[in-house]
Amino acid sequence: MKVLANDGISKSGIAALEKGGFEVITTKVAQEQVANFINENNVDVILVRSATKVRKDIIDACPGIKIIGRGGVGMDNIDVDYAKSKGIHVINTPASSSESVAELVFGHLFSGVRFLHDSNRNMPLEGDSNFDGLKKAYANGVELRGKTLGIVGIGRIGQATAKMALGLGMKVIAADSFIPEVDVKVDFFDGQSITTKIVSQSLESLFKEADFITLHVPAQNGYIIGEKDFEILKDGVGIVNCARGGVIDEVALVKALDSGKVAFAGLDVFENEPKPEMAILMHSKISLTPHIGAATGEAQDRIGTELASQIITLLS
């Protein structure tokens, strides 16, 4: 059987699939050519990440498809229910990238509280001529320890983020419509651990209480943080979004950054991917990454081998 990994797959994933008797194709096929390629090459399984979309048109055009796999968590680029109605298995890897995304969240948080993103822009330009001026400009950092982190969405990635926050000595609060409470276990290198219970609270109370907010929700029909919501946030709040573009009103975010209501933002995802608005890209108070939350070697290895395991189980 043939597997098309159109957005790539780790070497460990390829090895596991080949050991299971599958032929793995890693040719990058343009979106408009995906259906033709699948049919011409008798592909049984298509694996995607966030780039390739598997919508109704491809599903209808490719009756030979047995599995659609998503390397990662979000499934908004796949017509999941329609595929299942056609008898196609739809799989993903919700646990594989949690730690990688959570670490990126803290990369943005540390960058924001210590101005690293802006300092790294300006030191090459002015470091030799305005060292003291830059030192003064970036001298008002704050510590994360002892601050309150509000996690919107306390699923797997939210819980991984909570563990890191607890390890730093932060207070963690959460809002989640589907998870009323969760026990979060923080494991240490020597085999010891601590477990703490996080009880979900209202989104409005989280907005009022949190010093920093991180979003871990799927794609939404509307904004989680819209123009009116910015009004009730704490003054000087920091906001990180490594989940999905479109859950924060970016126009309102820029206004809040300019007014000082929001101290900084860290964005890995954007309303207009792959062409984020220039006002976002050029803003000195925004730490930026190009949708790389799960893009670590460790996460990709886990994703590849987990997808391989599911495919072999389903089709053997």
TrEMBL record:
Domain D-isomer specific 2-hydroxyacid dehydrogenase catalytic, first and last residues per copy: 6-315
Keywords: NAD, Oxidoreductase
Pfam families listed in its UniProt record: 2-Hacid_dh, 2-Hacid_dh_C
SUPFAM superfamilies the UniProt entry points to: Formate/glycerate dehydrogenase catalytic domain-like, NAD(P)-binding Rossmann-fold domains
Top-level taxon in the UniProt lineage: Bacteria
Signal peptide positions (record): none
UniProt entry tagged with the keyword Oxidoreductase: yes
D-isomer specific 2-hydroxyacid dehydrogenase NAD-binding domain sequence ranges: 107-293
Protein family per UniProt: Belongs to the D-isomer specific 2-hydroxyacid dehydrogenase family.
Protein name: D-2-hydroxyacid dehydrogenase
